[in-house]
Design brief:
Elements lengths: L8 E6 L4 H8 L5 E7 L5 H8 L4 E3 L8 H14 L4 E4 L8 H7 L3 E5 L11 H8 L3 E8 L9 E8 L6 H24 L4 H11 L1
Parallel strand pairs: 1-2, 1-4, 2-3, 4-5
Antiparallel strand pairs: 5-6, 6-7
Helix pairs in contact: 1-6, 3-4
Bound molecules: 5-O-phosphono-beta-D-ribofuranosylamine (GRF).
5-O-phosphono-beta-D-ribofuranosylamine binds next to helix 1, strand 5 and helix 6.
Length: 204
């Protein structure tokens, strides 16, 4: 039985257009989006959040001399909102231990490939180059190792003859918009607590 806790709060980290953020906000959620935080002031996702009356904040990475200093500053802003869950949705900075340790076990990311295949960037081009017949997206727990945290959920799409990066990424994005809101809802409803404890324990 799932225990719905209406007070669970989440913060979304973004850097870009925010289509995953939109999909998450459009799905009726048992929790509350407390803030949307970006490292870029020009992220379209910030406008999406503001239009819905959600708090926004910008922590510009270029203002910090080192990654550690940026990590600490960002973590301080995120912590102010006391999130139960930190959702990375197109956040394009690699976060180090200074950040990850503070939110370990309650931070998730969506990655546009079927991990462990194609961690990192340019996933669609690399999938096409490799000639895979199936591609997709993965929601995973964030650890300090890039795109290597325990996998929570995946969705796959076929790679079709004649696909290019534009057609393939569009097909994957449709699945991202289905998968990510579902994971966030499940988490906020408490449905993942036991499973995630098991996944985290397996990592140790
Ligand atoms: C998505 O493809 C996501 O998988 C990747 O970055 C992209 C973000 O897109 N991590 P959007 O900002 O959610 O539209």
């Amino acid at each position: 039985m799932s225990l719905i806790n209406a007070t669970r709060r989440y913060v979304v980290l973004v850097s870009g257009r925010g289509s995953n953020l939109s999909a998450i906000l459009a799905a009726s959620s048992p929790g509350q989006c407390a803030a949307v935080i970006s490292n870029r002031a020009d992220a379209g996702a910030l406008e999406i959040a503001s239009a819905q009356g959600i708090d926004t904040a910008v922590v510009p990475h270029q203002n910090y001399a080192t990654r550690d200093l940026f990590d600490v500053a960002l973590a301080d802003v995120v912590a102010r909102y006391k999130p139960d869950l930190v959702v990375m949705a197109g956040f394009m900075r690699i976060l180090g231990e200074q950040f990850v340790n503070r939110f370990e076990g309650r931070m998730i990311n969506i990655h546009p490939s079927l991990l462990p295949a194609f961690p990192g960037t340019h996933t669609h081009a690399r999938a096409l180059d490799a000639g895979v017949k199936t591609h997709g997206c993965t929601v995973h727990l964030v650890t300090s190792e890039l795109d290597a945290g325990p996998i929570i959920a995946q969705a796959s799409v076929p790679v079709l003859a004649g696909d290019d990066v534009a057609t393939l990424s569009a097909r994957v994005l449709v699945e991202e918009h289905r998968l990510y809101p579902r994971v966030v809802q499940d988490w906020l409803a408490g449905n993942f607590d036991q499973r995630l404890r098991e996944l985290a324990a397996r990592e140790c």
